[in-house]
Design goal:
Layout: H1 8-18, E1 23-28, E2 34-38, H2 39-55, E3 63-67, H3 72-83, E4 87-91, H4 97-107, E5 111-114, H5 120-123, E6 132-135, E7 146-147, H6 148-152, E8 168-173, E9 183-187, H7 188-202, E10 209-212, H8 219-232, E11 235-238, H9 245-252, E12 256-259, H10 261-274, H11 277-284, H12 287-301, E13 308-311, H13 318-327, E14 331-335, E15 345-346, E16 359-360, E17 365-368, E18 373-377, E19 384-385, H14 389-395, E20 402-410, E21 416-421, E22 426-427, E23 433-434, H15 436-443, E24 449-455, E25 463-468, H16 470-477, H17 481-498, E26 507-510, H18 530-537, H19 541-547, E27 551-553
Parallel strand pairs: 1-11, 3-4, 3-5, 5-6, 6-7, 10-11, 12-13, 13-14, 25-26, 26-27
Antiparallel strand pairs: 1-2, 8-9, 9-19, 14-15, 15-16, 17-18, 18-20, 20-21, 22-23, 24-25
Helix pairs in contact: 2-3, 7-8, 11-12
Protein name: Long-chain acyl-CoA synthetase (AMP-forming)
GO cellular component, one term: membrane
InterPro entries: AMP-binding_CS, AMP-dep_synth/lig_dom, ANL_N_sf
């Protein structure tokens, strides 16, 4: 039975009272040390920080920013902001100074918690001078108005705040594959609806373990880690860095794990770097040995204890899901958006249908518009975009449905399949419309392609821009270029044979760049920014399309 209209703060306070000594947050420290906070310790530190925030006498509902990579005190700071009666505004930890200033100014944040960051000097100029800065325990070098220890010197608040469920809890600024970020407003009731229904659906509990590594400022990590831990009592382990990620996974041995497609692909490429794909495929086909090999591979990745593996935030190639299934790990697709707390659809265990996401989550209504757009409505739907009623009206229908911008269809069992983004669908020079995502999923089966972006607006035929995996790049450097080209030609022929004539690709172009967050090709949640891809390579598109060589190199 799901109890609605309770805040995450009330859930935390109840859970803290039930097991104050239970381990809650496990934080790796520089030098190989690990710090653990119990539920009681996290609560006490949050209360002391809340007392300090209250001492500032800001109006109720003032905005307080969190600028940090994932760490234990990110969550403690969020709790403190809510306990003090304010609204949290998380920022991505790798924004430019201009982007920091944009969000801070738009949100009117008056205080900023500064935590674990890789390049604070490049971000710091974006912090408005009137904003009070507070350094969390893990923080970069720099000058800050206050340290976390200053806040801990305050006497803790003694009341147990009960915010109005309908009141604003947070403003989440979207990472945005195009355009400027939007401030998505969520209430405590939104969080409660999504978290309580999701926990009831999966039956996770206090013995489960999570690894936090995707940005906590993103709705997926906020729900799958912060809210899940508060509502189900799970222990949260934090990753220290990309370099230590596999070691962090092995230390946590998560029982529930959420990853975006790029992460699941990176795991796969890491396995292929240790063992050739063909050899692994041969071993997995052997009945008894295959199971043993699969378990060994999962253990090496730190995934051997996972009960629920989830994948979302972007289209997932069915071949990738099938690969994990053959290892012995059933990866379930989920679908959602920042605008509905990431709570919309999820595939149920044992009911997977290749190429389809799954059914709507409990309490979610779904309809497909005349244009084929997926529209959803639930108690997790946002209040609107902050200070942007016009864009809010464009996104929310008069009867409260969220326009997702995704094209899709439902089968007889109400499974959902996405067929492309309305804004990503392009028209070729012949006037035919093409949805890139399904084609990209077909091409992603190749063991040496790590990223793929299909383009073709105004071209005689679409192109597939490909980024090779590290293994693929090494093989080319070692003289295996012709073998790679041959396999890619075969792939292109197979994929084109499955497509309608107007969808067929003129060429696969192997670009020389490796697309990453740092060079601006990926969002912080590892989605490809199509506008950046198109602006970077667009000057060559016509040349590549008209040349019509099956495989071309961007050199």
């Amino acid at each position: 039975m799901v109890t609605a209209n309770r805040s995450p703060l009330e859930q935390f306070i109840q859970r803290e009272a039930r097991h104050p000594q239970k381990r809650y947050l496990v934080q790796p420290l520089p030098g190989g040390q690990v710090q653990t906070l119990t539920w009681g310790e996290a609560g006490q530190q949050a209360r002391r920080a809340a007392a300090w925030l209250r001492s500032l006498a800001m109006p109720p509902g003032s905005r307080v920013a969190i600028i940090s990579k994932n760490c234990a005190h990110w969550i403690v700071a969020d709790l403190a902001i809510w306990m003090a009666g304010h609204v949290s505004v998380p920022l991505y930890p790798n924004l430019t100074a201009d982007s920091v200033r944009q969000v801070m100014t738009h949100s009117e944040a008056r205080v900023a918690f500064i935590g674990k960051l890789d390049d604070w000097p490049s971000m710091a100029p974006g912090l408005p001078s009137e904003v009070l800065s507070v350094a969390l325990p893990l923080h970069p070098q720099g000058r800050f108005d206050h340290a976390w220890n200053d806040l801990q010197a305050c006497a803790p608040i003694t009341d147990d705040p009960h915010p109005d469920p309908a009141s604003l809890a947070t403003i989440i600024y979207t990472s945005g594959t195009t355009g400027t970020p939007k401030g998505v407003m969520h209430s405590f009731a939104n969080f409660d609806f999504a978290a309580s229904h999701a926990m009831a659906l999966f039956g996770v509990g206090e013995e489960d373990r999570l690894l936090s590594y995707l940005p906590l400022c993103h709705v997926a990590e906020r729900m799958f880690v912060e809210m899940a831990s508060i509502y189900a009592g799970q222990t949260v382990f934090f990753a220290e860095s990309l370099e230590t990620f596999v070691a962090d996974m092995r230390r946590a041995r998560p029982t529930v794990f959420f990853g975006v497609p790029r992460i699941w692909t990176k795991f796969q490429m890491g396995v292929y770097a240790q063992m050739p794909a063909q050899k692994l495929e041969r071993l997995l086909r052997l009945p008894l040995i295959g199971r043993l090999v699969g378990r060994k591979v999962l253990a090496g990745l730190g995934l051997d204890a996972v009960r629920y593996a989830l994948c979302g935030a972007a289209p997932v190639p069915p071949a990738l899901l099938d690969w994990y299934q053959r290892l012995g790990l059933n990866v379930l697709e989920v679908y959602g958006m920042t605008e509905n707390c990431g709570y919309s659809h999820v595939c149920r265990p044992g009911r997977q249908k290749p190429g389809w996401i799954g059914q709507s989550s409990p309490g979610v209504e779904v309809r497909i518009s005349d244009e084929g757009e997926v529209q959803v409505r639930s108690g997790a739907t946002m209040l609107g975009y902050y200070k942007d009623p016009e864009r809010t009206a464009e996104t929310l229908t008069a009867d409260g449905f969220l326009r997702t911008g995704d094209k899709g269809e439902e089968d007889a069992e109400h499974n959902l399949r996405l067929t492309g983004r309305l804004k990503e669908i392009f028209k070729t020079g012949k006037g035919k419309y093409v949805a890139p995502a399904p084609i990209e999923n077909r091409l992603a089966v190749h063991s040496r392609i790590e990223q793929i972006c299909v383009v073709g607006d105004g071209l005689v035929a679409p192109l597939g821009l490909c980024v090779l995996s590290e293994v693929g790049r090494q093989e080319v450097a070692n003289g295996a270029r012709s073998e790679l080209e041959s396999s890619l030609r075969r792939l292109l022929e197979e994929v084109n044979g499955e497509l309608d004539k107007h969808e067929r690709l003129a060429s696969l172009v192997l670009v020389k760049d490796v697309w990453s967050v740092d060079n601006g090709f990926l969002t912080p949640t590892l989605k490809i920014k199509r506008n950046v891809v198109e602006s970077t390579y667009g000057g060559r598109f016509n040349e590549w399309a008209e040349r019509r060589e099956a495989v071309q190199w961007h050199e």
